[in-house]
Amino acid sequence: MFRNNYDSDAVTFSPTGRLFQVEYALEAIKQGSAAVGLTSKNNAVLVALKRNAEDLGSYHKKVIKIDDHLAIVLAGLAPDARVLSNFLRTKAMESKMLFNRPISIQKAANLLADKAQQNTQSYGSRPYGVGLLIIGYDESGSHLFEFQPSGNVLKYKANAIGARSQGAKTFLEKNFESFDDLNDAELIKNGVEALRQTLKDSELSTSNTTIAIVGKDGLKIYEDEDVEPFLEQVTVEEEGGDDDAQDGSGDERMEEDGAAQ
Amino acid sequence: MEHDPFKWGRPDNATYGDYDYRISNAKNTEFPSMHTQQPIVTGTSVIAIKYKNGIVMAADNLGSYGSLARFSNIERLIPVGKDTVVGISGDISDLQYIERALDELEVENDYDGASHPFKANHIHEYLNKLLYQRRSKLNPLWNAVVVAGINSDNEPFLAHNDLLGVQFSSPTLATGFGAHLAIPLLRKVADKEEDVAHVTKEQAREAILQSMKVLFYRDARSSNRFSLVTIDKDTGISFEKDLKVENMSWKYAETIKGYGNLQKF
């Protein structure tokens, strides 16, 4: 029977040049619920789908505030994300203390990348089983980064991670060129719409949706009843404007869902 | 173990031999390590003044070993990044330590791309933390530091920092002897923050040159060779090195009265 001999630790290459443990870690991200991130010129937004293990239990927190100008959303192993967010909070405080300036988003992303990379090159450790989207606003504007356990960090205009995120990605690829000039509410609307493309049998509700937006006035995280206005906004437009080109994506959504299974 | 009530608990001489009293009588003259007790090679005043669009700062090139003019080519104005200059007086070896620390800081910052350069207020904050940390270890960096440059709001920034971790800001700043001799002259040009808006670059430069002359006349640890830097928020940093104090008068001061015991009341 086939057995993979090159995946028992994170530091050994396979003969084809792959690190299987790192690739498995990337799979762990896809087990997590979906999260969407997108940017305009003045804002960066996260919209994420929260999960609860059982009906009687609470929903798992997806968005973690790092600083007044910086937040992350996670997909994958939540405890691993906590380690990373604690680390990043420490670094954000360090920047405030030493230089009296908020940490730059690029720097924050690079610090996470370096930390994750170490785990792919030291014997006896495992890569982090979590992917992150990092949003923030600093002196050079709004930013969105994707963090992967492989140590990759890339800058994006819009991106999605987690289960069935391909649907959201397709939506974003189709629409991202119009995002730059959107105001905060319109950007969130696009984020909610993108997240909706990842759903199969469920609906977005106040209990399973979380929204975060960051701009020059700081970070705001919306949970529970506070997300209702944003959900309503999207629902109303869908009902009212069936002829609208953007809302014609309903059929396509089904296709995407089919492909993601 | 000794069971004698006066020696109870001590190692038994019969077992371990006599206690070596040289241990408790050992002289305490040679320390295993020593902290800075005093500056050794020193640089004298740094003076600076704000003008409408920036800052003019100067410091001479002398490194004194006590009263001996030991080194004549010490550069005490250190550029950091594109819009900050740090002027340092006090111990020269500690100056070099700070110079290396700032250089390392800049290099590390550039690893993350050049989009977030340090501004003058960031450098000032860092130096303050560094100086205060060292004084809290009772091993101070024996310097007084003037940070001049452009801050993150793109405005002229001028602040002082010293070996105790004291920090303050003012439109005119001077360290050491300059605080007594140059500050009154500089304040004639810019007394309060509001006055800065009316000061031109030429006026500021003239006041600094005049102050450097007075300092050379009266500060016995100064030299007539100095560096001057202008940091303008539009044109950036421009250095002038190897300047000399000019238009001095060494005539016999026959009309000057009122020194020493000839003083009349």
UniProtKB/TrEMBL annotation, chain A:
<protein>
    <submittedName>
        <fullName>Proteasome core particle subunit alpha 6</fullName>
    </submittedName>
</protein>
<feature type="region of interest" description="Disordered">
    <location>
        <begin position="233"/>
        <end position="261"/>
    </location>
</feature>
<dbReference type="InterPro" id="IPR050115">
    <property type="entry name" value="Proteasome_alpha"/>
</dbReference>
<comment type="similarity">
    <text>Belongs to the peptidase T1A family.</text>
</comment>
<dbReference type="InterPro" id="IPR001353">
    <property type="entry name" value="Proteasome_sua/b"/>
</dbReference>
<dbReference type="GO" id="GO:0019773">
    <property type="term" value="C:proteasome core complex, alpha-subunit complex"/>
</dbReference>
<dbReference type="Pfam" id="PF10584">
    <property type="entry name" value="Proteasome_A_N"/>
</dbReference>
<feature type="compositionally biased region" description="Acidic residues">
    <location>
        <begin position="233"/>
        <end position="246"/>
    </location>
</feature>
<dbReference type="InterPro" id="IPR000426">
    <property type="entry name" value="Proteasome_asu_N"/>
</dbReference>
<feature type="domain" description="Proteasome alpha-type subunits">
    <location>
        <begin position="6"/>
        <end position="28"/>
    </location>
</feature>
<dbReference type="GO" id="GO:0043161">
    <property type="term" value="P:proteasome-mediated ubiquitin-dependent protein catabolic process"/>
</dbReference>
<keyword id="KW-0963">Cytoplasm</keyword>
<keyword id="KW-0647">Proteasome</keyword>
<keyword id="KW-0539">Nucleus</keyword>
<dbReference type="Pfam" id="PF00227">
    <property type="entry name" value="Proteasome"/>
</dbReference>
<dbReference type="GO" id="GO:0005634">
    <property type="term" value="C:nucleus"/>
</dbReference>
<dbReference type="InterPro" id="IPR023332">
    <property type="entry name" value="Proteasome_alpha-type"/>
</dbReference>
<dbReference type="GO" id="GO:0005737">
    <property type="term" value="C:cytoplasm"/>
</dbReference>
<dbReference type="InterPro" id="IPR029055">
    <property type="entry name" value="Ntn_hydrolases_N"/>
</dbReference>
<dbReference type="GO" id="GO:0010499">
    <property type="term" value="P:proteasomal ubiquitin-independent protein catabolic process"/>
</dbReference>
<comment type="function">
    <text>The proteasome degrades poly-ubiquitinated proteins in the cytoplasm and in the nucleus. It is essential for the regulated turnover of proteins and for the removal of misfolded proteins. The proteasome is a multicatalytic proteinase complex that is characterized by its ability to cleave peptides with Arg, Phe, Tyr, Leu, and Glu adjacent to the leaving group at neutral or slightly basic pH. It has an ATP-dependent proteolytic activity.</text>
</comment>
Automatic annotation (TrEMBL), chain B:
<dbReference type="InterPro" id="IPR023333">
    <property type="entry name" value="Proteasome_suB-type"/>
</dbReference>
<dbReference type="InterPro" id="IPR029055">
    <property type="entry name" value="Ntn_hydrolases_N"/>
</dbReference>
<keyword id="KW-0963">Cytoplasm</keyword>
<keyword id="KW-0539">Nucleus</keyword>
<dbReference type="GO" id="GO:0043161">
    <property type="term" value="P:proteasome-mediated ubiquitin-dependent protein catabolic process"/>
</dbReference>
<dbReference type="GO" id="GO:0005634">
    <property type="term" value="C:nucleus"/>
</dbReference>
<dbReference type="InterPro" id="IPR016050">
    <property type="entry name" value="Proteasome_bsu_CS"/>
</dbReference>
<comment type="similarity">
    <text>Belongs to the peptidase T1B family.</text>
</comment>
<keyword id="KW-0647">Proteasome</keyword>
<dbReference type="GO" id="GO:0005737">
    <property type="term" value="C:cytoplasm"/>
</dbReference>
<comment type="function">
    <text>Non-catalytic component of the proteasome.</text>
</comment>
<dbReference type="InterPro" id="IPR001353">
    <property type="entry name" value="Proteasome_sua/b"/>
</dbReference>
<protein>
    <recommendedName>
        <fullName>Proteasome subunit beta</fullName>
    </recommendedName>
</protein>
<dbReference type="Pfam" id="PF00227">
    <property type="entry name" value="Proteasome"/>
</dbReference>
<dbReference type="InterPro" id="IPR016295">
    <property type="entry name" value="Proteasome_beta4"/>
</dbReference>
<dbReference type="GO" id="GO:0019774">
    <property type="term" value="C:proteasome core complex, beta-subunit complex"/>
</dbReference>
<dbReference type="GO" id="GO:0010499">
    <property type="term" value="P:proteasomal ubiquitin-independent protein catabolic process"/>
</dbReference>
